[in-house]
Amino acid sequence: QVQLQQWGAGLLKPSETLSLTCAVYGGSFSGYYWNWIRQPPGKGLEWIGKINHSGSASYNPSLKSRVTVSVDTSKNQFSLKLSSVTAADTAVYYCARSKWSQGSYYYYYYMDVWGKGATVTVSS
Amino acid sequence: DIQMTQSPSTLSASVGDRVTITCRASQSISSWLAWYQQKPGKAPKLLIYDASSLESGVPSRFSGSGSGTEFTLTISSLQPDDFATYYCQQYNNYPYTFGQGTKLEIK
Prior knowledge:
Chain A is an all-beta fold and 124 residues long.
């Protein structure tokens, strides 16, 4: 049974760079996409971006200028960096695996396994 | 971005009730919709994908339907463990977007 374990700095000051890592245990790393999603306190979910084992990534345009998602296949890990954070970036950050469904021309990816979440607080 | 709108935002129901949550997309997303359940302090859990496919291990009292712009999640007979917040999410277009959530409360 695949499990995702995530970690990173929990308290940041404004303008610093958020850095989180998610490790994949008990399952294949290649053949899937790997996502980051966040949830501000008391609010809904926001998709940040995803990456596959070969480094092909997609990002939410609302964050794209500040986000980098990277992958380390030797460790079955992927990472999130978010630069120039502000209080608005305070949230629980989740990593998640994407499985695919095949459409007529494309594959479509939904998130089936999630990490437990990491709380990140931005405060001066 | 595709806007996902859920209704109602809050739903009060009793154990044994049949409940339905609606999710509307601002444009057609075919059947590329997932439903998640989230409990306080926990990660979301996948219930339904491709609008109507039940994720392995999820009780059969959960079902999903719809295509295009209108979708529903139905719980046929509420159990105590089902009181939680439910989110729909489209994966037809980037960026993936979620509904605002429906909180299912005990009446």
